[in-house]
Amino acid sequence: MNSDRCIKCGSCLRACPVLGDARGALFPGPRATGVDAPRFPERADAGPSALMCTMCHACELACPSSITLTKAMLRLRSELKGQGPSGHLRMRENVMATGRTVSADFDEWVEEGNDILYFPGCIGLGRLTSMTRAASSLLTSLDIKHDISSRALCCGSPLLKVGALEEAANVKRSNMEVLSAYRKVVVSCPGCAYQLRTEYGLEAKHMVEVLRDLPLRSRAEGRWALQMPCHLKRGLGPWTAEDLVGILERAGVELVRIPEEDVCCGGGGGLPSGFPELAASMARSKVRAYERAGVDGVITACPFCCLNLRREGLRVLDISEAVSLNE
pTM of this prediction? Predict the structure, then answer.
């Protein structure tokens, strides 16, 4: 832990999107939870408070001392030992019962022994099945033969976000029996991509990385803004975010860039299940910014962004729904 490098400058506090929201007043902020709490065990209240963090990594990007604040907050969450909001407990129960955070409504499995696996993630299988079908269809049109395995479970990232280390280890063991049979894994969720790379050691490619430099055309008519996923830009890397922009511009999408495009929408870190009012409030702030820009909708590359913003009535497309092969 490198918290001793903190110079108390407040950069992390100014960058935190939760503190910037009216409903985030109870969150003590990344410095109190990521720097002070680990060094002062008597701050027993800091652990539950850390559950209000969206894990967007904005604080780390702003920190001039490069403190790994997100890792510190994950450590605090792991010490809660089953405590937390009822929504987090339900999610853990779902994983124990079904292997996924939400029940799968998708049933168009492809298990033909291909050496590439498309891994839609829990939200893609349970909430955004149209995105999953669009991504699979796009891969097929690109002559990327792939399986969609019914045996692939939650990647474990949502479990780590709520401190469920044992459950995360269990799904990893089950997943490795399935995923290790594939040469490459393609995902729609940047959080899944990050998890499969860092925790599993697998070659996992996000759809943005697959689509880079390919001949594509826009399916999105009108003017569109971006919702830049936190785990795409600040997890997988800023170059991946640049690739997303490049793909859409070369495909002919009329993009409208706004300063707020890379601000967290509140869809990650377990916030919608644990603190739904806060997640909705953050999403509404984003919706107002897009409405001021006068766009027809928003394109993103993250199922959690899609889901959280759609709940507030915004028209949102995943990148796999926004482009197609330019034949």
Answer: 0.95
